[in-house]
Amino acid sequence: MSPIPQSACEDLADVNRVLAGDVQAFEGIVRRWQGPLVNMAWRYCRDRGRAEELAQEAFIRAWRGLAQWRREGSFSTWLFALAANVFRTELKRFPTVTAPMESAPEPSGPALQHRDLEDRSRHEVLRRAVLALPLRYREPVVLFYFHEMDLAAAAQTMGMPEGTMKARLSRARALLRSRFPQLESEHAALHFAGKEA
Amino acid sequence: MNPESMDRILATEEELVPSSGFLASVMERVQEEASAPPPIPFPWLRAIPALVLATAVLGWGGYEFARFALPAAGELALASPRISATLVTPLKEAGWVAGSLAVSLVCWLLSSRLAGRSGLL
What we know:
The structure holds 2 protein chains of 2 kinds.
Chain A: H1 6-19, H2 26-45, H3 48-64, H4 75-93, H5 115-131, H6 135-146, H7 151-158, H8 162-179, H9 183-196
Helix pairs in contact in A: 1-2, 2-3, 2-4, 2-6, 3-4, 4-7, 6-7, 6-8, 7-8
Chain B: H1 3-11, H2 22-35, H3 44-78, H4 85-118
C-alpha cells in the first residue's frame, strides 16, 4: 500500500479543522496550493494579475464548498477540478484578450547568434497560440501540460473520459501544427547547424 | 512541428510565484465570508399561502377566459375580415420577405451550431 503523502494528511487535517469552525486553518490550504493554482490560472489566461484574481476566486469557492469534498478522492483532484470550473466560467464571462490563431506572428528564420532569444520568443508564440485555440481544445492542452503530461490527471480535472481527452489533445496538436508547419524544418536546421559548428 | 518539440516547449514553463500579498488577500476574503451573516432562508411558510392564492386566481382567470373569450373568438372568426384588393399584393410580398428571413435565420442558426460542434467557433 502506498503511503499517504504528507500534504494529503495536512490537507485532510486542515479541512477537518475548517469544517469544525476554525477559519484560520484554511490558511494552511492556501499556503500549500497557492502556487499550483496561480500557475494553473496563468496557463489559462497568461495575465499575472488576472491569474491571481482567478486563483483567489477558486479558493473562495473551495472555502464555500469544502463540505462537498468526498474523502475518497484526493483533495488536490477536487481542488483542481473546482478551479478549472471556476477559470472556465470566469473566462467565459470576461474573456482575456487573445488574438486569433491566424494573427499569431510567424516565427522568423533562425538567428544562430541569438539562439536563446530566438527560442524563447518562438516558445512564447507557441504558448500564446494555445490560448487562441477554441476552448474545447485549449483546455485539454492547458491541463495536460499543467499536470506534467499526465493524461489521467488532466482528464480527472476536466471531468471527462481519458479517450475524449486524448482525442481533443490530438486535434489541438494538429491545429497547432497546421499553424506552425515550418517549425519542424527550422528545428531540424538548427540541429544540423549546431552539429556542423 | 514534431510532437516531441511541442511537448518540450509547452511542458517547460517558468514557475510563477504568487505575489507576497496573495495569501493575506485570500484570507481576508475568507474572513469576510466567515463573518458575514448566514443567508436569509426563503420564507416558504409565508410564500406557500401566497403561491396557492396566486395559482387559484390564475386558474380562475383561465377558467373565465375559456368560458367567455373563446366562444366570442369563434364568433369573430366566422365573420371573415374584408381586406381591400390594394392591400393583398403588399401583404403577399411581406409574407415572402418574412418567409425568406425565417429561412435565413434557420440556416444561420444551423450553420453556427454545426461550426460550434466542430470547434471552429
